[in-house]
Design goal:
By secondary structure, the chain is an alpha/beta fold. Helices cover 40% and strands 16% of the residues.
């Protein structure tokens, strides 16, 4: 697929996906939504793509949410059953937000507004790097629009129940410092430096053996909401991946025994 609203760029094993509608604050319209579904699955399936960095074009906005001008042109719901089936099967209305099948690391470089679906987009990432001018908020409150792309699911997991309820109910905006205090972002950098820092971190992660990273991320994601016993069983099952890799876990153990802190991984630890 050729993208009109995105830039998909790969350097070595790091993919940078840029939401590229700066005149609309990188808001998600129907065209971008379809392209996002393709881009995320493309990253998931590319063998040589290890880490994804998501960002928005320019320094003013990461993603300002759903493009309400585009949404205003949508027809009212007609056949309820058809709508219900569509919602159930959709990967997301503002990107690949209703799927949990990507176990490669994802980093968000948040450069400006991350509102509504933009906040939901940031929550797709495992690590969030915020520029000092970044702002976050569930602003869809103002227009009587529900959080339909993971807001009510991922936000409590990231910041906890009380903080999530406050943000979701009030719809207020918070700055980067407040976001750092509540655990919404991992790091703050100067204005204009979020992407560079995210790409630097992504390159560091891409240099690590990838098998264990993916297995552990899958264990965490699949264990959410389950009992302790179920979570331990999932973790134990995923340890089987050590015995299925082209780069055996014994390679790492042998390197440790020999005092080699940077073993050679012929197959990137996979």
């Amino acid at each position: 697929m050729d993208y009109e609203t995105l830039r998909y760029e790969r350097s070595d094993h790091v993919v940078t996906l840029t939401y590229d509608r700066p005149d609309q604050h990188n808001a998600v319209n129907r065209t971008m939504n379809a392209e996002l579904h393709d881009a995320w699955q493309r990253f998931r399936d590319e063998e040589d793509s290890f880490v994804l960095v998501i960002t928005g074009a320019g320094e003013q906005a990461f993603c300002a949410g759903w493009d309400l001008q585009d949404a205003a042109e949508l027809k009212e719901v007609g056949d309820y059953d058809a709508f219900r089936v569509s919602v159930y099967n959709s990967p997301g209305e503002c990107g690949y937000t209703r799927r949990a099948d990507i176990f490669k690391p994802v980093i968000a470089a948040v450069n400006g507004y991350a509102f509504a679906a933009g906040l939901e987009t940031a929550l797709l990432a495992d690590i969030r790097i915020a520029a000092e001018n970044a702002e976050f908020g569930a602003l869809e409150r103002r227009w009587n629009i529900v959080g339909g792309d993971g807001m009510t699911v991922r936000l409590p997991l990231v910041v906890g129940f009380a903080r999530a309820m406050e943000l979701v109910i009030t719809g207020r905006r918070i700055d980067a410092e407040q976001a750092l205090r509540i655990g919404l972002v991992n790091e703050i950098v100067p204005r204009g430096q979020a992407l560079a820092r995210a790409q630097e971190l992504a390159a560091e992660i891409a240099a690590l053996p990838q098998g264990a990273i993916r297995s552990d991320k899958e264990s965490i994601m699949r264990g959410i909401g389950r009992t302790l016993e179920e979570r331990l069983r999932i973790e134990a099952e995923l340890t089987l991946s050590m015995f299925m890799r082209r780069d055996s876990h014994t390679l790492g153990a042998a390197a440790f025994k020999a005092g080699n802190l940077k073993p050679d991984w012929p197959h990137h630890g996979l």
